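Thread: Newbie trying to understand structure tokens

Hi all, I'm a second-year student working on a class project, and my supervisor (Dr. K.) asked me to get a predicted structure for one chain before our next meeting. I've only ever worked with sequences, so writing a 3D structure as a token string is new to me. If someone could post the tokens and maybe explain what I'm looking at, I'd be very grateful. Here's the chain:
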Amino acid sequence: MAGEEEVELVLEDGREAMKKTLENYRRELLKVRTGRASTALLDGIMVDYFDTPTPLKQLASLSVPDPRMIVISPFDKSCIGGVEKAIQTSNLGLTPNNDGKVVRISIPPLTEERRKDLVKQVRKTAEDHRIGVREGRRDALAFLKDLEGDGTLPKDDRHRAEKAVQDLTDEFIKKIDESTAQKEKEVLEV
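---
Reply by user tm_fold:
Sure, no problem. This is what the structure looks like when written as tokens:
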């Protein structure tokens, strides 16, 4: 029953590809600003540290003392200016203030227009990741077709396996949709 084993491998590969797409999407959602402060907003910020782009999280501890404030405590106080500049030049629209020891970022409340823009951004990101899930489906279906073509998999078995691939696709698309709805709710919450 080599065909069944290969079908299981195809399904497992498809599941893994779709799972990675979902995890990537959820990481992307963490970076979308809501009305609350979150250190995830600063993921991806690179600070010029001795002429080397260095992730902010490697240079400082980040904390959220209250829902409208992020505090960045650099391990090396000499890089505080670089931290402040990196945040100012990012496209996050945040204004850092430093007192020589820490950088404070006050998170202003989102305007209605900005909330709508963020919802559009979330929906676009969701669609990009749905496409990623569908690419996983396409690859799995191509493998199944190849297995049928080389005689390893009977046509009836291929149809059953294709149904399983579609069920898998539906499951991951639903998870993306659920995450999208949750993020939209957070963004629109005043």
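A couple of things are worth pointing out once you decode it. The CA atoms of residues 1 and 8 lie 11 Å apart. The chain has five helices and six strands. Feel free to ask follow-ups in this thread.
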